[in-house]
């Protein structure tokens, strides 16, 4: 689990990022989770946008993505989810 201090650091790093995935009408599927897991391995930190037409609650979507990709949920702000997962090969972020 991330500490408050670590989450603050990750939130500040995520601030300038643009969402690279969108969850829409279809909700969360295996393919999306795999792509997000791969992207997290490359980037460590990313944003996912939950579109207006998504049937599921954004908190449920965030939990499904975090659990499926083995990532930490940093925050949900508006309809944007911020996820973090320490990269094995491309470690860029050092947590306090």
UniProtKB/TrEMBL annotation:
Keywords: RNA-binding. The keyword RNA-binding applies. The keyword Lipid metabolism does not apply. It holds the Pfam family CRS1_YhbY. Residues 1-96 form the CRM domain. It comes from the Bacteria. One of its GO terms (molecular function) is RNA binding. SMART domains: CRS1_YhbY (SM01103). InterPro entries: RNA-binding_CRM (IPR001890), RNA-binding_domain (IPR051925), RNA-binding_YhbY (IPR017924), YhbY-like_sf (IPR035920). NCBIfam families: RNA_bind_YhbY. This is Ribosome assembly RNA-binding protein YhbY. The gene is yhbY.
